[in-house]
Structures are given as structure tokens and as C-alpha cells.
Amino acid sequence: MIYTGKSLTVSLLDDGFAELVFDAEGSVNKFDRQTVGELDEATQVLKSRDDIKGVLVRSNKSTFIVGADITEFTELFAKDDEEVLSWVAKTAQVFDRFEDLPFPTVAAINGFALGGGCEMTLACDMRVADTTASIGLPEVKLGLMPGFGGTVRLPRVIGSDNALEWMTTGKDRKGQQALNEGAVDAVVAPEALKEAALSMLKDAASGSLNWEKRRDQKKAPLQLNKNEAAMSFSTAAAMVAAKAGKHYPAPHMMVETVKNASGMDRDGALKLENEGFVKLAKTDAAKAQIGIFLSDQLVKSKGKKQAKAATKENKLNAVLGAGIMGGGIAYQAAVKGQPVVMKDISTDALDLGLKEASKILSKGMERGKVDAKKMASTLNNITPTLDYNAMKDADLVIEAVVENAKVKASVLQETEKTVADDAIICSNTSTISINQLAKNLDKPERFVGMHFFNPVHKMPLVEIIRGEKTSDDTVNAVVAAALKMGKTPIVVNDCPGFLVNRVLFPYFAGFSKLVLDGADFVAVDKVMEKTFGWPMGPAYLLDVVGMDTADHAAGVMAEGIPERMQKIGNDPVSLQYRAERLGQKNGKGFYEYGTDKRGRPTKNASDDTYALLKEHVSDSKDFDKDEIIARLMVPMANEAIRCLEEGIVGSASEADMALLYGLGFPPFRGGVFRWIETIGLANFVEMADKYAHLGPIYQVTDGVRQMAADGKSYFA
């Protein structure tokens, strides 16, 4: 052993070769400050030896290197620009010094080589991957760009077009695809990886492979003539503008950096990369997206702990109600290899549920993501039935019948009589109190809410709602079941609307008040989509939800929280519901839905809706973007704060992830609490106070007012 650190070691092999092995103390290798420091020390040791012909770089774990240690970023990025620039430049220079070793280097890549891990392989002269490898630069998902030479080396290895596609999308490549694009030099079976990489290293040292030419290419300007460069970078800029839009600066910065550095050598190009990295590190988008990553890690960690604590194994699921939701839930269990009984009271309903599952699978086949075998096995996992007794052996029953408390109570009572004493019973209700439904059951401790979002197969979130009498064992088992279905479970306590719908309906109320005050719903949608970043504006979202569903849920919320959520007498939603304008369900809502001559869907603002609302709304008025955003988002934020203060949700991080995964909250804003923090708590309170006269949903709690005064954070 010629170097020993906590994260890596260097030892001599036979015939004058050395191997640098990453093997951190934790479960994975990552580039934290300690590892970077040790890599630099190991490089100095290697450089000082005159008996080494080449270095093999590999991992002793099931993955190569998963990337940089994100947990160090939040503290680091809070420092001034010069400090951040100094850090990233010094770190990048460690990779340069390794690249400049006076002998060939080969990376043996297994498992994930992402971010800094990918950049480490690029600092090597050659790369061999095994069939488990996934290689990529996903920094864009954190609102950042590569900072350790990725934007410099990758374009010079695989060409600027391919490199920009890698970096601006953040998608990783399996070994064979990386080989096809020139990012690696060979792909072998896992058991042959070390031997193959060592063989390549020996060929390089003997002169059979021209490693020096490869290295020179990485350190030289890009080989593009003027026309090629103009075409390449203009195409990349247009693609980024179309896909990423204006809210995500990272992919735009990557294109600009690679373009401006294309005529420079390594040192000049790396300087531009470092400067671009610092600019991005200081953006609100990066703070938000890094916040999402850390919150996601917290939610996943919490879920795994709860699932690990589960004492009951779930072998058979049952779904009651075979409509769109029931069929979607049945599909989700079945596609993950779990048998599921789907029960309804009519053959037509069962056919609808199976049709929903088939439709999802058929679309997957059209996109090449599902083959005939997968389709058959998924459908075979679903057993449709009209008989309650068919689910008597189910370990977990999910009730997904119509959103009506009396109907649900009846179905749940019948279910309890049928299933085993230790079977867990869940309700896929979106607003009805779990405590209220539990009153109809003999064993409320085994009853819990399990709220899926539509469409089930696309929406990652499952809200798990703990009632007053729900046991920990029940919650843990349902968390485990949700994870097995491939969902992200977040546990909340019972209240009207739970978490997601409780914060959504004040947002809808803010929208309704704005329309009644003379705002054009099309203009409001445009601001909330284009400026704030929601995937749908409130009018469009209400059309998708359905006026009947929205009106019913608003009634439940009004009954449960009358002090803030009383229904508005002439609410545009209720007016349309009474006029049998249900939104997309019947093609008539705020917008009219149809198809054009080519059969493509159309959506146009409805003249009939304008006419219907005319006698109820004030004279037409233009509201500026800031006021529209404030009047919709302050009620949502206030209700989220109340949910946190009342203990409905465990943390700001969990609330943010719930809205991100359940509602599509704009990722570049990081979630509702991250949005509040980005504005600044004091500024948020001032904004809310400006509209406090509009009613209780705009009035902040004493808690947030005190936090603002004390300069505290929801993420401390």
C-alpha cells in the first residue's frame, strides 16, 4: 500500500502498475471534501514515484461514485461568490492534476458513475464499463452544471452535440449506450471488469493504445469549424429553450459555457465552467432544486424506516371499486408484480377497471416501454370479482368507491365483516375524515387513509392519513405497501382535506375571489403557468378535476373548517356545476374541449362561461402578475403553515414534497415552504398583510409572524 486514506487507497500491482480504489466508510462512494483532499494526496504520491507504468481506478463497492456530497452544498453556497469560486476551482484542479499524471490511467466503472463520479472517469485516459454501469452528469436536476471539468472533457470526448444532450437533460447512460456514443471504450461482464481494464492499461503503457493522443484531445480546443459550431450551438440553445423554458437557468448556462469555451484549451474552458457553476449556485432555482433533493432524501429515509418496522407482510391486495381510480390502483399493484383482487357490484364497472389498466399498458407498449409479456403478467395479476368473499384472504384492502361518506361507511362495514381480523383496511378518500369513517368500524386501529392521486400511474404521491385510533403497525404496513407499489408515501394526521387538498382549496378560493373581482380566468391561468410555473393554471386544473368533484370537496372543506373555508355564494365553480358544466368530463367548463380536423385535442376559453359569470362578477379589470400570484399563493401558503403548526404534517420538507408530487408544484420553486423562504418570511408576512382585508385565508398565523420577527427558518 503506497497511500491509505479513509475514502480511497493506492496499492502496487504486478509489473509496475498501481490501482487507486475508492472505498468510503459509508454505503456509497461520493466526492465530499475529505475524498477530494485524499485524491489530491494520492495523486501527489503517484506523481512522485518513478516505478509506476499506469494506474487503474476502480471502486470496492457496488457502485463507482454516485457524485458529490450534496449535503455540503447548502452551507458552502451560502458563502460569498469568491469563496465558492475558490472552492470549485481548487477542486477542479485536483482532477486536472490527476489527468496530468505522467502515465496512462484507466477507469473501471461499475454501477453508478454520476456527477463527480463521471467527471473522475473523464479525467482518466480510457474507460471500461461493466453491464451494471450507469454513467451521466445529472447536475441540471439540482439547478447546477458540472463543476469538476465535465463541460470541458465530455464535449472533447463524445462531441459537443452529444455532450450537451447528456448535460442539459441530466439523463444517465447504460454501458452499451455510453459505448455507442464514445464515452467508454469497452463494456464487459461484471466479473471481467478489473481484468479487462487492467489489460487495456497494459496495452496503453506498452504503446499499443495511444493514450497521449486521447489526453491531448481533452486538453485542446474543440475540433469544430465556424459553420459546425454555429449550427451545433444554435440547435442546442433552441432545444433547451423549448424543453427547459425560462425558469431553469442551468441548461442555458451549459450551452453558453460550452459554446464560449469551444475555442479554448482546458485551462481557459475550465475557468469559464467554474464561473458558470458559481453563478448557478447562487440562483433561487438551484437552492430550490437542491432543497427538493434533500427533502426527497428525508422523505425516502423516513419511509424506509417505517416500512422496515412493519410487522405484517402484504402478499395480496384488494381494491373495492373498479372505476378510473380503482382500476388505476389495481394496475399500480399488479404492474409491480403484486396479485390484486378488484371488487365491484357490476360487470360493467369491472370492465371499466380492467380497461383502465389495459389502456395504461397499451400506451406503454406504443412507447416501447412495455412488451407483450409485461402486459400479460400485469393483467393476470388482477382478479376481477363481484363477490366479497374473493377478498377474504387479502392482507390489505383499499376502498376506492364514490366520494360519499354514507356509501363509504356501508362498504367499509361490509369489508370488515369479510376480511381476516388482522387485514388492514384503507380508504382512498380525498377529503372525508378518517376519524369519521372509523366510527363505523369495530377495529379502527387497523383503518387508515390511503389517498392516491389521479392519474394513479403517473402521480408519485400517496398520502397516508393516520386517524386518532390508527395503530403504528397499521401505518408502517401501509407505508411498506405504498413503497412496493413504487409510490412515495407521506404520512399525515387526519383533518378535512388532509394536507394536499386542504392547502389546494384556499388556492381555488383565492382564484374564485379574483375572478369575481373582475379578473379574466385566461389571464390568471397564463400568469400561474408561464410566470409562476404551475403545469396548469387554476381554471384549467378545475376543469380537469371536474366542477362536480370540486364543488363537493369545497362543501366538505367548508363543513370541516368553517372559520376560513365557507363556500362563496356565487363561486364560479358552483355556478358552472349548477349549469351542468363539469369541465373535461363533458367538454364544457372554463374552457371548451374538442378536437380539430386532424383529431388533435383543442382547448378554448368558453364564451358560455363568460356569459354565465357576467352578472356575478365585477367589471373587467387587469391585475398585474404580482397581485395575481399573491392572491392565489398566499392562501395556499397560509394553510400549509397552519398544517405544519397543527402537526398535520411532520416537517416543511414533507409538505413541500407532498405538493411537488401530489399537485405538480413548480420544482424550480422547491415547494410552498421553500417559496416562502425564497421571498423571505418578513416579506411574505408583509405581502399577506396587504391582502388581509380579503378574508381569513389571507391572514397569517401568530407563529409565522413571530418566526419572521425572530429571523427563523422552516429548514433550520
How would you describe what is shown here?
- The chain has an eight-stranded mixed beta sheet with strand order 13-12-11-14-15-16-17-18, sandwiched between helices. A seven-stranded mixed beta sheet has the order 1-2-3-4-5-7-10, sandwiched between helices.
- The longest helix is centred in the middle third of the chain and has 25 residues, at 284-308.
- The protein is 52% helix and 12% strand.
- The chain has three domains: 3-282, 2-enoyl-CoA Hydratase, Chain A, domain 1 (Alpha-Beta Complex), CATH 3.90.226.10; 313-494, Rossmann fold (3-Layer(aba) Sandwich); 501-710, N-(1-d-carboxylethyl)-l-norvaline Dehydrogenase, domain 2.
- By secondary structure, it is α/β, with parallel strands linked by helices.
- It contains 31 helices and 20 strands.
Shape: globular
User: What is the CATH C level class of the largest domain, in words?
Assistant: Alpha Beta
Structural class: alpha/beta
The pLDDT mean sits at: 95
Separation of the first and last Cα atoms? 43 Å
The number of helical segments is 31
Strand order of the largest sheet: 13-12-11-14-15-16-17-18
Question: How many separate structural domains?
Answer: 3
CATH architecture of the largest domain: Alpha-Beta Complex
Could you list the spans in which at least 5 consecutive residues all have pLDDT below 50?
Answer: none
Largest beta sheet, briefly? Answer: 8 strands, mixed
Going by CATH, the homologous superfamily of the largest domain would be 2-enoyl-CoA Hydratase, Chain A, domain 1
**Helix content range:** 40-55%
Total strand segments = 20
- Indicate the radius of gyration in whole angstroms: 29 Å
Beta-strand portion reads 5-15%
CATH topology tier name of the largest domain: 2-enoyl-CoA Hydratase, Chain A, domain 1
GO biological process, one term: fatty acid beta-oxidation
Domain 3-hydroxyacyl-CoA dehydrogenase NAD binding: 318-495
Family: Belongs to the enoyl-CoA hydratase/isomerase family. In the N-terminal section; belongs to the enoyl-CoA hydratase/isomerase family.
Pathway: Lipid metabolism; fatty acid beta-oxidation
